């Protein structure tokens, strides 16, 4: 297994996540799906890297996360693990890989850990996943739960909308969070829920909340790297703050190179290889 390397000092595991919650220290998590971005994210000091099934949207262009396969996440995870020294690497369990039976779910999660190099797995769902979370944790698999907007339920939900707006829905989400904590999840993603609800869940749980579109009070914030970097297309949700416009940077660079090639300015002498004068003479006389 080529990704294996000795753990460096300060490597983030579960105790570091717990300690941060106890000390009120905010942590950060970003997605990555390949070696170079994992290296950049890790070297920038991000605490957790999620090999998210958002790979389906931002890398494969599927339009949603439903088609993402275990092989795609495993392969991305291997690359991310190679590029990561300090951050905890978490792999998303794709749709269909934890829905058939507990045994199959355990097998798939173990595959992500043994072959992918994941140090934890994430799965979507509330009370319907409690038994599975307990089983995975019993098998020494660290689990991140995910409630609120669960993109793998897109066809059932009929779109991507804020969840937990009514008192009944909010109570249900709070309850789900408590059940998942009790089952052994070490953290829980709260996606697209009102900030007051996220704050309440964060206060009531001993485990860390990981917010995305859930306000500032979550213990950890997560974003999709490509959203933050301006490498996505179409309208973005209101919680996305674009910190760079890499799409424009790349377009400008490609235009510049294309122009240079067409004008003959690329490659120049320094960017190509020459023959020695003797070889050139020999060649011309032959
Ligand atoms: O797949 C993903 O990137 C996620 C985050 C948005 C939490 O699940």
Structural notes for this entry:
α2 crosses α4 and α8 (167-183) runs parallel beside α9. The chain is 42% helix and 14% strand. The chain has helices at 14-23, 35-43, 55-58, 70-82, 102-114, 130-138, 154-157, 167-183, 195-204, 225-228, 246-263, 277-285; strands spanning 27-31, 48-51, 88-92, 120-124, 143-148, 187-191, 208-212, 220-223. The longest helix has 18 residues, at 246-263. It has an eight-stranded parallel beta barrel, surrounded by seven helices. It has two domains: 14-244, TIM Barrel (Alpha-Beta Barrel); 249-285, no CATH class. The chain is elongated, with a radius of gyration of 23 Å. The protein is of the alpha/beta class and 286 residues long. The termini are far apart. It binds 3-methyl-2-oxobutanoic acid. Residues 31, 50, 52-54, 92, 189, 191, 212, 222, 224 line the site of 3-methyl-2-oxobutanoic acid.
What is the topology?
Elements lengths: L13 H10 L3 E5 L3 H9 L4 E4 L3 H4 L11 H13 L5 E5 L9 H13 L5 E5 L5 H9 L4 E6 L5 H4 L9 H17 L3 E5 L3 H10 L3 E5 L7 E4 L1 H4 L17 H18 L13 H9 L1
Parallel strand pairs: 1-2, 1-8, 2-3, 3-4, 4-5, 5-6, 6-7, 7-8
Helix pairs in contact: 2-4, 8-9
The protein binds 3-methyl-2-oxobutanoic acid.
N-to-C SSE series?
A: HEHEHHEHEHEHHEHEEHHH
Using the 3D structure, state the CATH architecture of the largest domain. Answer: Alpha-Beta Barrel
Question: Which ligands, by name, code or SMILES, are bound?
Answer: 3-methyl-2-oxobutanoic acid
Structural class by sheet pairing and helices? alpha/beta
Largest sheet, in brief, is: 8 strands, parallel, barrel
Round the Cα radius of gyration to an integer and report it. Answer: 23 Å
Compute the average pLDDT.
96
Number of domains: 2
Strand order, sheet with most strands: 1-2-3-4-5-6-7-8
